[in-house]
Amino acid sequence: MKLLTFIFSIFFINSLAYANDILAIEIDGQVSGLVEVELLSEVAPKHVERIKILAEIGAYDDVVFHRVIDGFMAQTGDVQFGKKGSSEISKAGRGGASLPNLTAEFSDLEYSKGVVGMARSSHPDSANSQFFIMFDDAPFLNGKYTIFGKVILGQEIVDKIKRGKGNNGMVNDPDYMSKVYIKANN
Questions:
Q1: pTM of the model
Q2: In the prediction, which pLDDT does 166 show?
Q3: Residues near 29 by beta carbon (within 8 Å), at least 6 away in sequence
């Protein structure tokens, strides 16, 4: 009996050690609802840390989905220019946090529906605050952009985010993240 209790204790402790935090995103606009993203700290620890810091200080609150391409992805996270109602909203997609850019943390994970990755410029080590959520599979992104999460609740909300127009997917009167916070995954 002691051995069984010991084995159960080890299993329970190990499962707690590997439980990932959840990024909760309340979306409003044309569509509204809660999206939860499991943060993959074992895959991209520096990126997850950055997302958590920005969420915890409220930097992502009221940030728009500025670039949304049907059949591909919805991009958000420009904490500098992407705030709903900002006089500089036309610059959304060009800004970031006042923190240094991140070194890429590429993995063997594949870009599929619901995967969340960090946006960046053409330089692999230029991710900062912007991220995107996949509408569909995009194998051409595999190994080229850091994956830090996966939608575990609310993909149907993500799928209804207002689409942009043109090749770049820029959105007029975009949906936005009204509140973003971290939940412990218990």
A1: 0.89
A2: 85
A3: 162, 173, 174, 175, 176
